[in-house]
Amino acid sequence: MPKNYEQLISHELTTEYCLQRAKVQHALDNPNSAESNLLYRMVAEEMARREPPLLIPYVEICISPQCTLNCRDCANFMQYYYKPQPMNLEQVWSWMDAFLEAIDAALTVRVMGGEPLMQKQLPELMRRLLAHPKVQHTQIVTNGTLEPKDDLLNLMQANRQYCSFFFSRYGSKLAPRFDEFTQKCLRHGLMVQAPEDNKQWFDMGDTSSRHRSVKELTEAYQKCPNNCRHIWNGEFHHCPRSAHGKYLGLIDMPETDYVPLMTLDTATRRERIRTMYDLPYITACNHCGLMPETHYVPPAIQADRAQSRVLGEKLAKMREEKQQLQLRLQELQSCTCKSSFTTVEGKR
């Protein structure tokens, strides 16, 4: 049951249950009583029958592509960002707020980068997430190269039942103080996930088209092990490959593949998020090498930063040219519509 379930229940439905069905006369007068708690749970069950609540099991939010590493095989394409900018707190929060407004609860929100510990405003973002009634648990994903600051750890310690750390292992050469940093988190009483050394990574491959049939795309989507719903650039995507592939101009896709959180009203946003979970596949499945045959690569191979910058700059220029072309097309369409309207008015 979401910790905010009382906020999801209408006064009318509560009153109906209290006075007509549940027969618990004093529940509304004493909200802290056992009767009241029972009442709200009964009403929540009734609401679920009338309209199933929109509960999101897991969602990631990328707060910035800035990273301390430059992994050649990064599945999220962080190595292709040209001059990545630090987190804009209010911008990132506007994405998260729009998403949370449209759902009933998110069981786990994973804060990612890049490397999130690079961001000076991370404690404030965490404070907002931990205080939000619709967020059940918040987890920070870090590569273990940076020391978590005391202000962040103190905040998380005060809310330790609702938050945790996930430390990815990249080896002692890239993260020499890994054990020191995990122990520091543990001393603050925080839950820390630190899987054993990665022996291999999934090889997602490049973004070229695999020319898959609808049947093959559906099978690849159903068998995909990455249940990684992802928020980036004001959009809610099925996975990071879709989100960052679109942003970088590596993958073209229809708008039905994602939810533009900042341009839709709340009701439409909610419906689009719900229907996204019913899609048989997405376009990114045709540009991914993960399925149906899984291949592996050695983990955390570092790419040459100079080469990454050159490629990133090319992608940035292509993205800018594409955006300018889209704006020009919109202007032309607007002029055409105005011209047609003027012609019709003239005939009248």
Topology:
Layout: H1 11-21, H2 34-50, E1 55-56, E2 59-62, H3 89-102, E3 105-106, E4 109-112, H4 122-131, E5 138-142, H5 150-158, E6 163-167, H6 178-187, E7 191-193, E8 201-202, H7 214-223, E9 230-232, E10 235-237, H8 240-247, E11 258-260, H9 266-276, E12 296-297, H10 305-347
Parallel strand pairs: 1-3, 2-4, 2-9, 4-5, 5-6, 6-7
Antiparallel strand pairs: 8-12, 9-10, 10-11
Helix pairs in contact: 1-2, 3-9, 4-5
Order of helices and strands: HHEEHEEHEHEHEEHEEHEHEH
Shape: globular
CATH topology call of the largest domain: TIM Barrel
The whole-number mean of residue pLDDT values reads 87
Determine and state the CATH class of the largest domain. Answer: Alpha Beta
**Which regions have little confidence, pLDDT < 50, spanning 5+ residues?**
17-24
Largest β sheet strand count, sense and barrel closure: 8 strands, mixed
* Number of distinct helices: 10
Give the beta-strand count. Answer: 12
User: Would you tell me the structural class of the helices and strands?
Assistant: alpha/beta
Order of strands, widest sheet = 7-6-5-4-2-9-10-11
CATH architecture of the largest domain: Alpha-Beta Barrel
Strand content: 5-15%
The domain count comes to: 2
